[in-house]
Amino acid sequence: MAYKKLILKSGRERSLINRHPWVFSGAVKDLPQAENGEIIEVHSNHKELLGYGFFSPNSQITCRVFEFTQEEITIDAAFWIGKLQNAFNLRMRLFNAAETNCYRLLHAEGDFFPGIIIDVYGAVAVVQVLVRGVEQIAEIVYQGLNQLGFSFIYLKTKQNTQLLEQVEQGSRWVGAAHPMPITVLEHGISFQVNVETGQKTGFFIDQRENRKLLAEWSNGKKVLNTFSYSGGFSIYALKAGASLVHSVDSSRDAIALCEANIALESMQDKHQSFTEDCFDFLKRIDDDFYDVVVLDPPAFAKNARSVPNAARGYQNLNALGFRKIKKGGILFTYSCSQHIDKDLFRKVVFSAAAEARRNVRVLKQLSQPEDHPINIFHPEGEYLKGLMLLVD
Ligand code: SAH
Q1: Fewer CB within 10 Å, N side or C side of the chain?
Q2: Which of 229, 230, 245 to mutate to test the pocket of ligand 1 (most atoms within 8 A of CB)?
Q3: Ligand 1 pocket, Cβ-based, cut-off 6 angstroms
Q4: Do the Cβ atoms of 335 and 300 come closer than 8 Å?
Q5: Full domain range(s) for residue 147
Q6: What is the pLDDT of residues 300-312, one digit of tens each?
Q7: 230 and 362 housed in the same domain
C-alpha cells in the first residue's frame, strides 16, 4: 500500500538518519494531504524514503516515526502485534511472575511504538493512547494484548494534556471489567492498585528498583518518605526493618491508599502518615532528625518554559531535605521531569547542598528500570533521574 508522503526541508534529514523518531514542524517542506492520525511516509528533500510514522498535523511533533527503513513495508495487524510481542519478550526475560507481576509492557519510543504506553497489573493491561495514530489501530493493540494473555484491558485517557492530538477522552474498560482494587506483587511485596481511580496508570512502577535500593539502607533507620503516594518506598523501608517511617502526601486519597497497603503487610506499628504539603511538613519538623530521606515529587517542569521555576522548586525542596538528615545519613532524591536533564538536576542538587551547608557525596546515580527502556536515539525518553547521596 502506498502512503502519503511528508517531504523534509533540505538538510533536515540528519536527525532521522540518526533514528530520532520525531519530525518537528520546522523541518517539514511539504506536508502530506493526510488526516490527523494517518500513517505517512517520511522522505528527505532528495525523495529518499526514511521511514514510516503517525501524522499529527496539529502538534509541534508533526510525525512520530515508528519504523526506520528505506524499503517499502507492509503495515498490517501482524506488524503491530509483532511490536507488542517483542516488548513482551523483553519483559518475560526481566520478571518472574511469582515475584513481580506489575511492570511496563510497552514504553512508547523505548519500544519503537510512539504514542502509547501499556502498564500491566496481573491480568490487567492499562493502555494510555497519546496520539490519534495509535487510536486508529487500537483494536489491533487490544487483540494483541488478548493474544498475550491479558484478558482485562483498561483504556486510561490523560486529561487535557493531549488536546492538540484530539484523542478521544474518557477512561473505560474495553470488554469485561476487573474488580478494583487489584492486589499485585512487586519483589514479592503485595500492593493494592486501583487502575480506575489511581494516579498515572495506578502505581509508580518506575520506582521499583529504587525502592529495593532504599530497603538496603533502611534497617534500624528513621526514614522520611515525602510525596509518598500509595506508600511504595515506605513499605520497602518497613519490611527491611526501619525503626520509624513517616509518609507525607497532600492527597487524602493517596494517604488512604498508603495506609491500606501498610495494613496489607501488617506494618502499621512503626509507621505514621501525614496528609500535608511536603514543603510545609519539611519546614515545621526538626533538623537533623532522619537517617534516610526520600524526595520523589511530581514533575515540576511540565514543559520547556517552566524549567527555571521548576529548578528553583527542586532546589528549595532538596535544601529542606538536606537539613532534616542527621550527619552520615542518606538522601534519595528524584526528578521525573523530562525537561530537566541529568546534568541540570545534579547542578540543582549541588546548589541545594551548598545552600544547606552540608558536605554531600554522590554514592549512586539512579534512573528508570529496564522495563522503561531508553531508545538510545531518543534521549528524551530518559525521564527519571535520581541521586543517592551521603550527607555529612
Ligand atoms: N513516590 C511515589 C510517587 C510519587 S508521585 C511512589 O513511589 O509511588 C507524587 C505524589 O506527590 C502524588 O501522590 C501527589 O499527591 C503528591 N504531591 C504533589 N504535590 C505535593 C505537595 N506539594 N505536597 C505533598 N504531596 C504532593
Answers
A1: N
A2: 229
A3: 199, 204, 207, 227-230, 232-233, 249-251, 254, 277-279, 296-298
A4: yes
A5: 77-182
A6: 998 889 999 999 9
A7: yes
